[in-house]
Design goal:
Blueprint (H helix, E strand, L loop, with lengths): L4 H17 L2 H12 L3 H10 L6 H9 L7 H13 L6 H18 L4 H18 L7 E12 L5 E12 L4 E9 L10 E6 L2 E8 L4 E12 L4 E9 L8 E6 L5 E8 L7 E7 L7 E6 L7 E6 L5 E8 L2
Parallel strand pairs: 1-9
Antiparallel strand pairs: 1-2, 2-7, 3-6, 4-7, 5-6, 8-13, 9-12, 10-11, 10-13
Helix pairs in contact: 1-2, 2-6
């Protein structure tokens, strides 16, 4: 039976409220109600997008009994945004916030809002330098070594890049460092370690973002390769529980090693990925900790756009 005009207004108002504040299952339920679709019809529409989800799963999702987590389920959520005529990323954002609240309770991970705020700040800092990160360079290899200090803090991050220029005249790279919550960017130091020197540095206290120019002693021509190495001393925040790196374009190999200079090693370590700050975490894989070398590592043979990282749990 079609909704009366007053019922439609109420359903629309409830949907607007739910999309702003969530949680995910309330917003999904409100969206389905506002469109007047039974779950069988929703399932039928999803099948037209090539996504197979059972009516029982849809029911669980809108009741909050379960959350979509598998890749096929996340495809369904994005399709639902189109089927239910919702803004792009609206349901995905709420789902990500729910996942990250759970992660934050377990591991102290950053929230979706803090990641978005840091991204906005980063764009402003890069605009000040008049240079986007990695402009004119394609990454062939990117190896990072992170040292966790005796207080379990992120003490230092050292990076080695192997790049190829895809245009003439490239003579710099802009490095980006995100400190952990509570960090003090003013006390961080940038060190040019090999084949580069430091240029301008910008910091933002509220988000812990630091960007630094690394200047080459030569201007690269298109097709030239170049290797350089730099480090960021941090050690200004509290207990570290993860290390992440965001890639704005696909590229070559990425390797991350986290070395623990602590008296006690983490009890568990895992790899994770995110398509964007607005997406839930996936690609979780347990990683072994080397007791002998007091470290954990991951290797991505070819990075994709998005976020990849290592998280760990202290006892």
């Amino acid at each position: 039976m079609p909704y009366a005009p007053q019922q439609v207004d109420i359903a629309t108002a409830e949907l607007d409220t739910a999309l702003r504040g969530g949680p995910f299952h309330v917003a999904l339920r409100a969206a389905i109600a506002a469109r007047g679709l039974p779950l069988q019809r929703v399932q039928h529409h999803l099948s037209r997008y090539g996504v197979r989800v059972g009516v029982t799963s849809l029911s669980y999702w809108q009741q909050g009994a379960r959350r979509p987590q598998r890749p096929e389920s996340l495809r369904a959520v994005r399709a639902l945004e189109e089927i239910l005529r919702l803004p792009d990323e609206s349901l995905i954002r709420l789902l990500a916030e729910a996942e990250e609240r759970s992660d934050a309770r377990r591991t102290g991970a950053r929230s979706y809002r803090s990641l978005v705020e840091a991204s906005d700040v980063l764009r402003g800092l890069l605009a000040e330098l008049g240079c986007p990160p990695g402009s004119g360079l394609h990454t062939l290899g990117y190896h990072e070594r992170v040292r966790i200090g005796p207080r379990r803090e992120l003490a230092e991050r050292e990076s080695q890049h192997i790049v190829r220029a895809h245009r003439d005249g490239v003579d710099r790279f802009v490095a980006v460092h995100h400190g952990d919550p509570g960090c003090v960017p003013e006390r961080m130091a940038v060190h040019a370690l090999e084949n580069c020197r430091t240029g301008r540095i910008r910091r933002h206290h509220g988000t812990g973002v630091l960007v630094a120019e690394l200047l080459f002693d030569t201007r690269l021509r298109a097709g030239d390769t170049f290797l350089f190495r730099y480090g960021v001393e941090d050690g200004t925040a509290g207990v570290a529980r993860e290390c992440v790196r965001e890639f704005d374009s696909a590229g070559g190999q990425y390797a991350l090693q986290v070395r623990f200079g602590t008296s006690v090693l983490p009890v568990r370590c895992h790899r994770f990925t995110q398509a964007s700050a607005a997406a839930p975490r996936g690609g979780r894989q347990e990683l072994p900790v080397s007791a002998r070398h007091r470290s954990v590592h991951l290797v991505e043979p070819r990075v994709r756009t998005g976020i990849v990282g290592v998280g760990w749990h202290w006892e």
